[in-house]
Design goal:
Number of helices: 2
Mean pLDDT: 89
Order of helices and strands: HEEHE
Number of strands: 3
Structural class: alpha+beta
């Protein structure tokens, strides 16, 4: 099971980088199978680079720093997997 508090800590660590570009990230859910659902906010929401931000930024860092995280998905895709 993934430590939700550790996920929050890691997101808090990456948040300043997103905020520097006018965006932000909110934690929506952490599933038992290691999927972290987040909502990109501000300038990040709808940005053409948002998928790269999720995959190469947020997901990579969460996988490195939080045991059990296997992936990150945006909240708007919750019903489409």
């Amino acid at each position: 099971m993934v430590d939700k508090e550790k996920v929050k800590e890691v997101l808090d660590a990456v948040r300043p980088s997103l905020q520097a570009d006018g965006g932000d990230v909110a934690l929506i859910d952490v599933s038992d199978d290691g999927i972290v659902t987040v909502e990109l906010q501000g300038a990040c929401k709808g940005c053409p680079m948002s998928q790269m931000t999720l995959a190469n930024g947020i997901e990579r860092i969460l996988k490195e720093r939080v045991e059990g995280v296997v992936g990150v998905r945006p909240a708007d895709e919750m019903g489409t997997l």
